[in-house]
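Go through this chain for my students:
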Amino acid sequence: MYRSFFNYRIGKNTYIGKSVINAKEVHIGDDVIIKDHTNISCGQLTIGKQTRILSGNTIIGQGNFSIGENSRIINNHFIDVWNNVAIGNNTWLAGRDSQLWTHGSIHTKKGDKKLSIQLGNDIYVGSNVNIAPGVVIGDTNLIGLGSVITSSFPDNRTIIAGNPSKVIKENIDWRENW
């Protein structure tokens, strides 16, 4: 239906469950799974191949949303795309109940600050993490569960945790040892 009626570009072997996708332009790669009860409403939607978006997620706003290849959004996360959100390859929003916000500050009305969020490649975001507008996270980082990210962490290979968050380990690949 999405291909025929809306002209969405959807790759081979892609499964979209009982979910809603409402975007001006859609590009979904091969072997993507979007499970039930997910609502995606944004300007442009780009999903890389072999990515999984599981149940109960809300991705909503007028900005663009992109997520790279082999990435995951597990259950019940909220992603505000008033401005753009870009998530890299092999990056996971794990667990549940994380929130990414791209508006809601005085800067929204003044337009004097970049409010889009960018998460790099190979990032693991634990459950219940809150990310403020304008945050940029470098590659190969782990964000501990319950963290509140209010500023950018452009460095690679760190473990970030706390409220407010700070780097608690440097020069470490969380995929190998943490």
